Amino acid sequence: xxxxxxxxxxxxxxxxxxxxxxxxxxxxxxxxxxxxxxxxxxxxxxxxxxxxxxxxxxxxxxxxxxxxxxxxxxxxxxxxxxxxxxxxxxxxxxxxxxxxxxxxxxxxxxxxxxxxxxxxxxxxxxxxxxxxxxxxxxxxxxxxxxxxxxxxxxxxxxxxxxxxxxxxxxxxxxxxxxxxxxxxxxxxxxxxxxxxxxxxxxxxxxxxxxxxxxxxxxxxxxxxxxxxxxxxxxxxxxxxxxxxxxxxxxxxx
Length: 253
Description:
The chain is α/β, with parallel strands linked by helices. It has helices at residues 16-30, 44-51, 66-76, 93-101, 125-141, 158-164, 175-185, 207-228, 232-238, 247-252; strands at 5-12, 34-40, 56-60, 81-85, 107-111, 118-120, 153-157, 190-194, 196-198. Strand 2 (34-40), helix 2 and strand 3 form a beta-alpha-beta unit.
């Protein structure tokens, strides 16, 4: 059965030439109904260049963060499957296709750290160390047992997205871990897909700051996931605390 596909590319200060090549490859390889670029805080030159790529372009004059951008992009789609990919093209189009093919009825997660993955180029030692350490801790706290929670390549069905969207709060890079945690907590299958991955230079991520944010988000994601599964302990811990506003509700305000 054919399922329609929409792709979201969250971007902040992208290399527009690299992005253009990636968009062309995605169109040629995957033939999606829609490619949506969620562009944060662009200057006029960048906005104009991206607008000419044959994509749906949504811009905001400030930096929302990856999670907020992907959430807005998924909300704009009306397709059976919704996929997001880092705009630097680290996940080749054919590898994205492998993720999409494995989505099933839930969530498919691209993996750089799976034994079957093929990593071309490598992150810095600091980023690898922090990433490996985070994955080790996450496997012990969450229901989804993965090698890689943070790879910027994931696909989800429209049905699963409809259920999980109200449980996502993290606007930045920690959004990935929350998506995995909440999708698993809601009973959907989470499949890890080893992929080819090409490290792209020029990352805008601060490893140390991101590690702190990720640790906080991991604890919060575990707490919310436990509440979804009716943990009396975590319900008690939440008593008297003000509930945060979900990303989709912020978009509507």
